[in-house]
Each structure stands twice: as C-alpha cells, then as structure tokens.
Amino acid sequence: MRDRVFWLISSLAMAVGGTSTDLAAQTRHVATFHDAVAAAWAQLPQRQDLAARGNVAAARFTAGGALFPNAPSLTGSYINDRILGSNQNYITSQAEVATPIWLPGEGTATQKAAQAEGGAVAADEDATHLALAGQVLDLVVQAARASGRLEAAEKRAATARALAADVHRRLAVGEAPQSDSLAADAEADSAQATLDNAQAELEQGRASLSSITGEENMPELTGSVPLATRPSPAAALVAGHPRILAAERALSAAQASARLAGIQNRDDPELGLQGINEKQPGQRWDTRFGVTLRFSFATAGRNAPLRAAAEQSVTRAMVQLELARREVVTAIRISRAALLSAEQVLPSTKRQAAALDQRRGQIERAWRLGEMSLVEVVRAQALSSDADLARATAAVDVAAARERVLLAEGKLP
Q1: Is the pLDDT of residue 51 over 90?
Q2: Tens-place pLDDT, residues 297-354
Q3: What Rg, from alpha-carbon coordinates, does the chain have?
Q4: b/e sequence 397-406, b meaning 16+ C-beta within 10 Å
Q5: Helical H runs in 173-282?
Q6: What is the distance of C-alpha 256 from the center of its chain?
Q7: CA 244 → CA 24, 117, 236, 249, 325, distances in Å?
Q8: Rounded to an integer, what distance in angstroms lies between the CA atom of residue 187 and that of residue 183?
Q9: pLDDT-above-70 percentage for the chain
Q10: 12 pLDDT exceeds 60?
C-alpha cells in the first residue's frame, strides 16, 4: 500500500513539475478565452512552486518508509597518559556506532502527513488554475470592451469626417454658414481624440493580456458555453468546487501534521553498539563490547509550543475552509444575478442602438433639406455612437457573465 501511495505522489510531482519554460516553448494559437487560459497556465511561474511542494511531499513519504528516521553516527575516542599523565602506558580506545530509531507510529504518521500534503498540492493546482482563469477573463473582458469602444469610435470619427467634408462643400457654395463649418470641425476633432484614446486603451489591454498569456493576438470572448436551464442550488456545487477541495485538503494536511507532532513528543531514541579496548602496564589488551540506548523524556517546555502551533494550523485551516464555502456560495449567486441582468439589458441596448441609428439618418436627411440645424445632427450622431457602444459593451458583458458563472461554479476552462 505504501509503495502505491508513493507512486501516486511521485506521479503528481512529475505531472506538476514540468517547468514553465518547457511548456511556454510550445506553440499556441490563442483564438478563444479557453486558449488564452491554456496559454497563461502553460507559463505560470507558480507551477514551479507547486512542483517543488510535490517533490517535498514525495521525499517526505520516502523518508517515512525508511528503516531509520535519520542517518547513523560513528563516535570514536583514544586516550593515553603520555603527554600530561603518569606516562605508565595506559591506553583506552573506544568506538560506537549508533542509529536513531522510530518512535511508535512515527514512520506511518510521517507517510500519512506526506500523503495529505501531496493531496493538498494537487487540489491547490486546480484552485490556482481556476484563479488564473478568473484573472485571464478580467483581462480578456477589458480588452474586448476596449475593442468595442474602438469600433464605435472609428464609426463616429468616420461619420464626423464625412459630415465636416459635406459642410465644407456647402460653405464653399454659400449654402452653409461659417459657424456650421466650425462646429463640424470641432466634432471631427473630438471624434478623432476619442478614437486615439480608444486605440491607446486597446493597446494597453493587449499588453496586459500578452503579459500573462505570452501571445499577442486577441482572443475572442464568445460566451457560447451552454448553461443549465435550471441550475443546481449554489450549496450543491460547493462540495466539488476546486477552492473547497483545496481548503479541505489543506485541513487534512494540517490535521495529519498535528497527529505527527503529537507522536514526535521527544527526540528519536538512539540504539548503539559500543566497543572498548584498554591496555594497562603488564596486562594484555582488554576488549569489551556492549549495547547503548539513549532515550529522552517528553517535557512540556518542548512539546507545548509545538502542539500549540500545530493546533493553530488546524484552526486556521478550518477557518479558511468556512470562508471558502461562504465566498464560493456568494460568488455563484452574484455571478448568476449578473448574468440574468446582462441578458436582460442586451436586447434593450440592441433596440436602442437601432432606433437611434434610424433617427440619426432621418435628422441628417432633414438637415440636408434645410429642415434641421447642424447642432441636431451632431447630437444625433453622438447619441447613436453612444448607443452602439452600449450595445457592444452589453454583448461583451453577456459573454463574460456566462463564463463567470462557470468559473464561480468551479468549472475549469
């Protein structure tokens, strides 16, 4: 059984232990949000720490199955009376080989603690992956919203330039006053400034996303993952959630370490084989062999701080588990409410954008017929541009909300 558990822990260490450099070298085409999460996970520096923790757990498990808890020691001495003594040729040679031995149950408890730590590492890997997916989603949403603002700004700038060119032609033939030309130029400059800001914002979003994924191309946020029509209660999803599993495994590891601390209430005993060789004047060499045993006592001064620290770790793990349960349930409820709101807002923004675009066209035609002032045209174009931006943002919010529901429920991309 121990060999099988050790094999499982070793497999975990090797699975987690692939260096980020090797994985980052693989060529990835980041086309979707899921691709972006995979690329970010491949080069996540924290994976090296997870691998190191897995290696520590595997090494502790191996040590727990060893014959002795620590390495044997060799002690030797040689004594004579020639230098400062009586110089009667008294000689004593002594050698001792000693080894520490396990306290009752210490080796098994060490392996169980290592096994619990290995399970905690595996759970932390999934929890870290999930947290990373949330970070990537925030960056993808930020970049997608910036892309929508850029698209709306480009449309507004093109419309403003076309309007300014039309006003200049009218001014040249005396069909428009100088004030209309100034107003059209001001609107074109304002639209261009908005466009420049949108381009800079998109580049910032791309740079932030590239820093975590290692890729330059912009992933698409589709939000096409189907959701259950009747989702399970939030409390029912807690049991298998990666954050909850990580907290539960951390509690198990703390409890196993506390049990080990209770067993290790004193230093390991030492068993030794001793040989003594003595020579006295006029006598033959006298050689003796014996067995030595060193056994220390358990004291409150030594054990009380260790046990208190172990109990503190267990208490902290229990608190973290309870907090994780509450936070997961809250996150699920909030994400579902946000999705419901986003899905309700999107149709109205689409209708508003269509209506204001139609109104813009009508006011532009009326202005060309001399039935409407240029100010109304500029205002109608601004309202239409804002509505287009609201529609694009709402579409991004729906796709992001669907992904956030899945992440809140602990479903890895």
Answers
A1: yes
A2: 988 988 999 999 999 999 999 999 999 999 999 999 999 999 999 999 999 999 999 9
A3: 37
A4: bbbbbbbbbb
A5: 178-213, 242-263
A6: 25
A7: 29, 16, 12, 9, 6
A8: 6
A9: 88
A10: no
| Residue located via tokens 């033959």 | 284
* Dist CA 166 CA 55 (whole Å): 72
Provide the strand spans (E) within 239-310. Answer: 270-279, 286-294
Integer angstrom CA distances of residue 175 from 163, 169, 253, 338, 368: 14, 8, 83, 52, 10
Single-letter amino acid code for the residue at 87: N
Q: For strands 270-279 and 73-80, give the pairing.
A: unpaired
Backbone angles phi, psi at 293, to 5 degrees: -140, 125
The structure tokens 């932030």 sit at: 208
Tokens at 52, concatenated? 């190191």
Under 8 Å between Cβ of 293 and 270: yes
CB atoms within 10 A of CB 303: 15
